[in-house]
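Hi V.,

You were right to ask for the full record rather than a summary. Here it is.
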Amino acid sequence: MTTNPSPEAPQRTQSVTPPPSGSSTRLLILLVLLVVAIGALGFDYAVARPGIDAADEKIQKFVDESNRQSVKDGKRVTPDEIRKLLGRQPTRVEKHPDDQYEIEYYCWWGPVPVLNMRRHYLTVVYAGDEPRHYTSHYKNEMAPIEALPIQQTPAEVTDEQVPPPTSNAEKKGKESTTTETKSGDVAPAEGEGGKPEGGESGKEK
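Predicted structure:
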């Protein structure tokens, strides 16, 4: 028995749908963020931390050498000398001309918000007349209020004069100089024997 060969079935074409582009975009963003975080972490530990330690040591050594010099040979450390020593300009400068001082901030994270004043920065305080001179510096902390030459406002002086204090004896002496009668008249001072001075009342000499 012979069978007729069945006609070949038409070949089915499989359509491959591309993956949604949204998932690949999110994956790319996550990879970029991961690379940025790893790079920031490496910069923080490999560059910023050693850099600020070296800068702090440079300033301290330079100031100590300047202080060891005699009054004749020594000179005050100015902001220009600190900038030249560090080889960079300050990231931010706070000027207080009324109190004659200014503060320079050297941030190893540059002007990056939040990070620049939290991670690895130097605070340098200068005081006096222009050009101001170095007074102190601090690593990873703000200058305390005790280090700032802030002018204290004197207490207000009033023109009111406070009367001198009086003793109890003086008060009693003032009260006993005049005595009042029940009718409100002032009684005359009594002489010897309890009689009023000037003779008996109602009689003339």
